């Protein structure tokens, strides 16, 4: 049985990724009454797919955007105990370059640049609460 089938999600134990993506230490999730205004932004070329966390609710699926028109921007309001802003971008097989930025309540919390053929970049933001 795969990790996904066991209910642990796409990444299994996310603790194994501490600091590996944006260089930041592990952070705690928000409390049940916390409300975050999140903005996701992507600029560049060659992006074939974007995914982002929409609301921060337990068990929700990420939203996928195929062949996005760049520059791309999306605002969401996140609430609840799993409100962790996550944005990813996958480049096409010919390569490209994309800058991913996540802001929380108007402050930049994470930024990553991805480049190369079929490369994927993941931007996980510390909500700062």
Explain this structure.
The protein has strands spanning 35-45, 47-52, 63-66, 72-79, 86-91, 97-104, 107-115, 120-124. It is mainly beta and 129 residues long.
Summarize the structure.
With 129 residues, the chain is mainly β.
- Rounded to the nearest angstrom, the radius of gyration is 14 Å
Poorly predicted spans: 1-28
Strand proportion:
35-45%
The helicity comes to under 10%
Helix and strand string, N-terminal first? EEEEEEEE
Protein traits:
129 residues, mainly beta, four-stranded antiparallel β-sheet, 0% helix, 44% strand, elongated, disordered N terminus
Topology:
Layout: E1 35-45, E2 47-52, E3 63-66, E4 72-79, E5 86-91, E6 97-104, E7 107-115, E8 120-124
Antiparallel strand pairs: 1-4, 1-6, 2-3, 2-5, 5-8, 6-7
């Amino acid at each position: 049985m795969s990790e996904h089938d066991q209910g642990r999600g796409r990444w299994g134990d996310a603790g194994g990724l501490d600091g590996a993506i944006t260089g930041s230490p592990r952070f705690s999730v928000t409390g049940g009454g916390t409300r975050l205004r999140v903005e996701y932004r992507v600029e560049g070329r060659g992006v074939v797919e974007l995914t982002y966390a929409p609301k921060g609710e337990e068990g929700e699926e990420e939203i996928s955007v195929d062949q996005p028109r760049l520059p791309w921007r999306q605002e969401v309001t996140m609430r609840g105990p799993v409100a962790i802003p996550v944005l990813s971008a996958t480049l096409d097989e010919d390569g490209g370059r994309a800058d991913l930025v996540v802001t929380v309540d108007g402050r930049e919390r994470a930024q990553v640049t991805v480049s190369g053929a079929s490369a994927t970049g993941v931007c996980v933001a510390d909500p700062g609460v």
